[in-house]
Design goal:
The protein has 95 residues and is mainly α. The protein contains 3 helices and no strands.
């Protein structure tokens, strides 16, 4: 299928996906597979973080205890600083 000679109204979605797969995505299949696995790991880590922090949030916010509020702040500050450092490592920028 020649995408350059077809008008946008004539192109079907399935044909467009097959063209994209054949022309570009197939040669990057292993990179895409690694990316999917890493996204699954990252999603499970976020779920694990939420599961570990649930007692803390239940005790502080639901229980009304303000003595452990600093722990919530420190946990989120650590989480976002590690995330920022990791993303800056990949794009070679300075924090």
């Amino acid at each position: 299928m020649d995408m350059k000679s077809s008008s946008p109204k004539d192109i079907k979605q399935g044909a467009l996906f097959l063209w994209l797969w054949r022309e570009y995505l197939r040669r990057h299949m292993w990179v895409l597979a690694i990316i999917v696995v890493l996204m699954m790991i990252e999603g499970s880590m976020v779920g694990g973080l939420a599961w570990m922090m649930q007692p803390l949030f239940d005790g502080v916010f639901v229980g009304g205890s303000k003595s452990q509020l600093w722990l919530v702040d420190q946990a989120w500050e650590y989480h976002y600083s590690v995330s920022l450092e990791g993303s800056c490592h990949w794009c070679n920028c300075a924090v």
